[in-house]
What we know:
Blueprint (H helix, E strand, L loop, with lengths): L1 H13 L1 H29 L11 E8 L2 E3 L2 E2 H8 L5 E8 L3 E9 L2 E12 L3 H4 L4 E3 L10 E5 H8 L8 E4 L5 E7 L12 E4 L12 E9 L5 H11 L3 H4 L3 H4 L1 E7 L39 E2 L12
Parallel strand pairs: 6-11, 8-10, 13-14
Antiparallel strand pairs: 1-2, 1-12, 1-13, 3-12, 4-12, 5-6, 5-9, 7-10, 8-11, 9-10
Amino acid sequence: MRPIIRNFLSVIRRFKPAVALNILGLSVAFAAFMVIMIQLNYDFGFDKFHKDYDKIFRVEFVQKTNTQAVISHPLAERFFESSPDIIAGALTYSWKSTASFHVEIDGVLNFYEEKSLTVSPEFFDVFTFNFVEGSNKGYMAPGSIFIPLSLSRKLFGNEPAVGKQIIHNSLEPQTVMAVYRDLPANSIFDNYIYFAMPENDPQANWRNSNRTAYIRVNDPSKVPLLFENFKQIFDFATIRGKTWDESDAFLRFIALPDIHFVTDVGWDDTPRRETWITPSKRSATRGRRKRPTSLITPRSFTEYPKLC
Length: 308
């Protein structure tokens, strides 16, 4: 053993530059490997913290060559009710906003601006949130909000936040109904203040495509049949003057973890990544459009843009 060690040390002393270059090269290679693995873990782990994430899909509206991540409120509700395979359906406003408000503590007004998103009450039936105060069991009525734990600490310190109010600059006072644990960074949703949709929203009409729709299903394998069923029971001509086929329109469904990779859709401000990486099997398309029906997932492997 000692002769081997002596020979090894002798080689190192004799070829110091070559040894240094080899060690440097291995160090760089391992560092690059770790960075790549961290990035892949981040990208492929998008929204997988939700319970049964493989059963959650975003509903997209496609007409001719245009695909959009928004849909009209009444059309989405009709679709949610169209099949027993849809366990829950949720809507969000298609835009994120900044909530300006103040909180009174010990007679002092403290002003804040925080990111917010308005959602339907069923949002918390589709997605999994870990509540540290309150819960989603009660109905999320207008005037109530859900806030992240980090914001609760920022506003109220270590005191319980449920039941406290924030005074919104343009709305009625909002009461904290629940506090949820902050979401991971690799999620299409941020740590928003979640507001409840108004019950009589004037923008919730057939003509306004200003909602993003999500569904939770009991069996992902049945998702391709959801639009075919809906097409049979809902007459698209009642709102557009033409049938689904005449309008060259259909609904497409994107698996939750794959939303991060979709690049061919408009009105979508979720975090996205352009990549050559193949989407998961559960999101395999049935090919390019000939006579389009419902599609699950982005596009085929060869259609993704190059890594940039």
